[in-house]
Design a protein that fits this description.
292 residues, alpha/beta, 3 domains, 5-stranded mixed β-sheet, 8% strand
Length: 292
């Protein structure tokens, strides 16, 4: 057992299942909902435990927390199988993906959560590779150890996770970016109510709103300048009235720029564009003024 292993708790009663803990790879996937767990308990009561509990050490569950809780409710001693392979994380992932029906975005969230586990696994393998190299090459240990570790280095943890979950590293990276910039959206993605692409669109919209908020004081200033220019001409041309006498005219122009599906400029580019519009109108105003 390690500190990373967590107690297994009956989600309906809050009771801790004594003598058992969950391996971190098992905890990547959520426990069953109350009604699902009740159904599983009833099924085991009628047919017995069909699929054994997988452990990696005594009392450390790699797969089967829900089945274990159901057996505990029924007072049954579960049948147990011991995993003896060298990739417990991928083994647990494979079992869960096989029985669960998850969207790719949901899988990507769980894959992202598994990255630290794969990184720790890679670290342990590098340490072991270094130890073995040192035993076989004691005299060259200091000089050649970095090369030995490079030779034994596993793929990047994110790529390992993506491969294990059957998705692209790009999708895991996309979810990672969302987690950093909009963590409130992550639970919805994991629950399957929001896709990663939809979440990224929300994130971009938020960024646009933030840019527009920074730009608004400049727009207000330009709007005031434009209204002053408009007041120099009597009577004011109709096109100028239509453009500037509306309090939100320039804001609307900027908003159209920002929400355009084809072009979302930075705040600086939008400011430059609006300034050019104002400069062009000022020139036209002067021409009209000279002709009066």
């Amino acid at each position: 057992m390690t500190d990373a292993n967590r107690p297994i708790i009956d989600p309906s009663t809050g009771e801790i299942i004594d003598g058992w803990v969950a391996h971190p790879a098992a905890d990547l996937f959520p426990m069953a909902q109350a009604d699902e767990l009740d159904g599983l308990t009833a099924d085991i009561a009628e047919h017995g435990l069909v699929e054994s509990i997988w452990t990696i050490d005594d009392g450390v569950v790699l797969d089967g927390r829900n089945r274990l809780v159901a057996c505990h409710r029924l007072g049954l001693a579960p049948t147990v199988k011991r995993y003896r392979g060298d990739d417990a994380i991928t083994f647990a992932v494979s079992l869960n993906l096989h029985r669960r029906h998850l969207e790719k975005s949901q899988v990507a969230v769980i894959a992202r959560e598994s990255v630290p586990l794969y990184a720790e696994e890679a670290r342990k393998r590098q340490v072991e590779a270094g130890r073995r190299y040192g035993e076989n090459h004691p005299k060259e240990l200091v000089a050649d150890l970095p090369q030995a570790l490079d030779e034994k280095r596993a793929p990047l943890a994110r790529d390992r996770a993506a491969e294990a979950f059957g998705i692209s590293g790009r999708l895991v990276g996309q979810v990672d970016r969302i987690a950093e910039q909009a963590p409130d959206l992550l639970p919805e993605i994991k629950a399957g109510t929001l896709t990663a692409n939809a979440a990224e669109k929300i994130l971009k919209d938020r960024q646009i709103v933030a840019q527009y908020a920074e730009l608004k004081p400049v727009l207000d200033e330009l709007k005031e300048q434009a209204n002053k220019e408009a007041q120099k001409i009597e009577p004011t041309p109709g096109w100028l009235v239509a453009l500037f006498r509306s309090a939100d005219s320039l804001s609307a122009v900027a908003a159209d720029v920002f929400v355009s599906a084809k072009w979302k400029p930075s705040a600086e580019k939008a400011i430059d564009m609006i300034r050019k519009v104002i400069d062009g109108i000022s020139v036209q105003l002067n021409i009209v003024d000279d002709n009066q």
